[in-house]
Design a protein that fits this description.
This protein is α/β, with parallel strands linked by helices. The chain has helices at residues 25-38, 64-75, 97-100, 109-117, 137-155, 171-179, 213-221, and strands spanning 2-6, 8-9, 22-23, 42-44, 53-60, 81-84, 121-124, 161-163, 184-190, 202-206. The strands form two sheets. Strands 1, 4, 5, 6, 7, 8, 9 and 10 form an eight-stranded parallel beta sheet that branches. A two-stranded parallel sheet has the order 2-3. Helix 2 links the parallel strand 5 (53-60) and strand 6.
Length: 222
């Protein structure tokens, strides 16, 4: 199984840096269409070890998901796992807007609740998106534990998955994630699910906006 990582599904604003993290909505539609119609890929929101299964993950919970990704996923009856920054709903990417030179709006609770009601899975991406190995242990523990509680209180569902901001973790951080009661955690390391060390170091494939369709299919299906 491959786990794909998306960030923004949108056209990047002119001034934005790291434009490759934006996949334009037409490209995204074609990617999903190909996977579903021609490759018969299973697009569920959980781990499925069959060879043609793909798990779509979306980091940070950007509002463009609702406008540009949701309609396509709905059309092709695909589900996804979305990692939300629990303390920044309805705000923007406070953690990297200066570096990226763009303020990207994040979904509010109503939008996230709607996605839950539509069968999407929500995971935790901490409260404020810090580098977890670079802050005091106590703070890291709160980011990991309290984000789960906030999301569960607001959404009324169990939050089973966690995603390390910036892919930053070490053994201690990983143990905190396990102790908090999560069932699995996702990294930014490249690889297939089967190549992952364990359920708390799941490897993924980041989808870049400059990929053309054959490139996408090659990276995702091989
Ligand atoms: Zn992130």
């Amino acid at each position: 199984m491959k786990v794909l990582t998306y960030h923004n599904i949108d056209y990047p604003p002119k001034e934005a840096k790291l434009k490759s993290l934006y996949v334009n909505p037409d490209k995204f539609r074609n990617q999903i269409k190909y996977l579903k119609k021609f490759k018969n890929t299973v697009l569920s929101n959980e781990i499925d070890k069959s060879k043609n299964a793909v798990l779509l993950t979306f980091d940070d919970g950007y509002r463009d998901f609702i406008k540009n990704a949701y309609p396509t996923l709905k059309k092709y009856q695909a589900k996804a796992l979305i990692f939300v920054v629990a303390g920044l709903t309805d705000k923007y990417n406070l953690w990297d807007w200066k570096k990226l030179n763009v303020k990207k709006p994040l979904m509010d609770w109503e939008e996230i609740k709607f996605l839950v009601s539509e069968g999407f899975e929500i995971g935790s991406h901490t409260i404020t998106h810090p580098f977890l190995t670079k802050i005091p242990e106590k703070t890291a523990k709160a980011e990991i534990e309290d984000s789960k509680k906030i999301l569960e209180d607001k959404l009324g569902v169990e939050i089973k998955t966690f995603c390390y901001p910036y892919g930053d973790y070490n053994q201690k951080v990983k143990e905190m994630v396990i102790d908090a009661g999560y069932k699995m955690a996702f990294t930014t390391k490249h690889g297939t699910f089967e190549e992952s060390k364990d359920m708390f170091e799941i490897k993924r494939v980041t989808v870049f906006g400059h990929w053309i369709l054959p490139q996408f299919l090659w990276k995702v299906l091989l």
